């Protein structure tokens, strides 16, 4: 029976679907994943209800902020659309309310779910993902807070300043926190932003790709962290009219090339190479392609409809796999279903919610051509159907 269900799930991406159907499916996926986290946290129950898997007990200090920060990083662009009278708009209104209540619970010193922003190194990572969310949706997440609530959020983010980042993508976590404080409060320490951007320029290896530190790694960290974080930080520099914003055009051109590479990684069947660290983050591996669609900065050779098809196919192949969720609706470790052996020591249940970062294209309204254009095959689907497709070229 499990094999039959898996075969049916795997067949779904091949079905011709409209953009409206793709959006409805993607919204349902967001709701299915995010609901347990935000319903529990908004009522101060996350610490009691979020499960820890075998071997994860030592991650209890950090897993709750992981679940919250990563969930918010994924859903914030969708929240930024605001409520409306459509069924989706009403669902979004509920999530906006849940998200603000959760933000208060996570940062209020008197809350039963007040989170750890300073003990160990991990809080820097997930405070950064939370910062990314605040930067993407300040009007619905930050602006409505009371002065006291804003002070609690800012104080929590500042707690991470005592954490020294590794010489790797972690430099961008400090930069994201400072960018959020800069935009939301006017206060900022520029040194972490300057250093993160300088070092990643130094670590650029060519053809739209950065090393994770001095060395290159075959993994998805250019998408999990590096390129989305660089774009977000540089957007803030541009909004604040800082000279560092002059780097944005070059970084964007590299980002377009990497988006083209990501789109080409999706097979005709909606699979992709599962390789490198953090494979349990599932379709979060395509945060970069999703964000470039959101920014309307896809490369010229990738149409919005093709990107939509590729992203939707990947989400189907991962989220529909049996064992993805436990009996109470929480994510379980795995890239395709439940695969405990794929877990690294730094992974816990909360970590898995970075998959939601692959849904940032939901921040495009339903009326956008990304959703309204007729379905198109993505690049590998065209090639393996025998179409005469132009040769791929490295960027100069």
UniProtKB/TrEMBL annotation:
Signal peptide: 1-16
Domain named DUF2264: residues: 22-378
InterPro entries, A to Z: DUF2264_N (IPR049349), UCP014753 (IPR016624)
Lineage: Bacteria, Pseudomonadati, Verrucomicrobiota, Verrucomicrobiia, Verrucomicrobiales
Domain of life: Bacteria
Organism from which the protein derives: Luteolibacter flavescens
Protein name, as recorded: DUF2264 domain-containing protein
Presence of the UniProt keyword Signal in the record: yes
DNA repair found in the keyword field: no
Keyword annotations: Signal
């Amino acid at each position: 029976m499990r094999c039959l269900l898996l075969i049916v799930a795997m067949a779904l991406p091949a079905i011709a679907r409209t953009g409206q159907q793709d959006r409805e499916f993607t919204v349902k996926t967001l709701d299915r994943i995010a609901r347990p986290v935000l319903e529990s946290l908004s009522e101060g129950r996350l610490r009691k209800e979020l499960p820890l898997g075998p071997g994860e007990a030592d991650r209890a200090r950090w897993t709750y902020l992981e679940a919250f920060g990563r969930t918010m990083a994924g859903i914030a662009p969708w929240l930024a659309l605001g409520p409306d009278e459509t069924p989706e708009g009403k669902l979004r209104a509920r999530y906006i309310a849940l998200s603000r209540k959760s933000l208060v619970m996570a940062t209020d010193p008197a809350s039963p779910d007040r989170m750890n922003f300073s003990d160990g190194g991990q809080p820097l990572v997930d405070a950064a993902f939370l910062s990314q969310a605040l930067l993407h949706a300040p009007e619905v997440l930050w602006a409505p807070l009371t002065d006291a609530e804003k002070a609690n959020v800012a104080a929590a983010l500042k707690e991470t300043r005592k954490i020294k980042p590794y010489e790797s993508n972690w430099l961008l976590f400090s930069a994201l926190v400072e960018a959020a404080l800069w935009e939301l409060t006017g206060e900022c320490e520029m040194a972490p932003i300057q250093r993160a951007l300088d070092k990643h320029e130094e670590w650029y290896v060519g053809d739209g790709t950065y090393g994770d530190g001095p060395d290159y790694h075959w993994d998805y960290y250019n998408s999990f962290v590096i390129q989305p974080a660089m774009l977000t930080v540089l957007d803030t520099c541009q909004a604040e009219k800082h000279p560092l914003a002059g780097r944005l055009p070059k970084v964007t051109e590299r980002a377009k090339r990497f988006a083209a590479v990501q789109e080409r990684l999706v097979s005709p069947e909606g699979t992709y190479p599962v390789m490198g660290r953090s494979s349990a983050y599932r379709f979060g591996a395509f945060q970069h392609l999703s964000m470039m669609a959101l920014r309307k900065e896809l490369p010229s050779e990738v149409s919005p409809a093709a990107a939509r098809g590729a992203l939707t196919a990947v989400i189907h192949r991962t989220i529909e796999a049996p064992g993805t969720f436990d009996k109470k609706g929480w994510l379980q470790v795995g890239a395709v279903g439940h695969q405990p052996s794929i877990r690294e020591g730094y992974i816990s249940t909360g970590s898995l919610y970075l998959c939601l970062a692959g849904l940032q294209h939901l921040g495009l309204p339903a009326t956008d051509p990304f959703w309204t254009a007729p379905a198109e095959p993505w690049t590998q689907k065209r090639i393996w159907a025998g179409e005469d497709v132009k040769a791929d070229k490295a960027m100069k």
